[in-house]
Design brief:
By secondary structure, this protein is mostly helical. Helices cover 60% and strands 0% of the residues. The protein has two domains: 8-66; 75-112. The chain is elongated and about 65 Å long.
Amino acid sequence: MSYRHLSIIERSKLEVLHRQGRSSRAIAKELSRHPSTICRELDRVTSSHPYQAEQAQNAYEERRKTSVSPGNWSDALAASLEEKLEATWSPEQITERFRIEGRCPISTFFPVY
């Protein structure tokens, strides 16, 4: 089963239904979502203030920015990769070197090709 993040539209509906005093289960049924998804969303955002869809969406987007894997390719990493390939390093050697240096957590050498 794949997980889908709540959209701003779903968060807006959640806000309205929550303000109407609807239960998490009723909101989940209305949005065709699992009740735990709604409970987690409300718990995540409503610690000291009422749920606000726009603030929840902004918080979600900020969390996504900081959750990017450190394995993203950069120009420097690509240049280093090319340099090692030209020096006849094998993909396995490059992968292991990058892993040791903590530069890129490549789990397999196939992306090197």
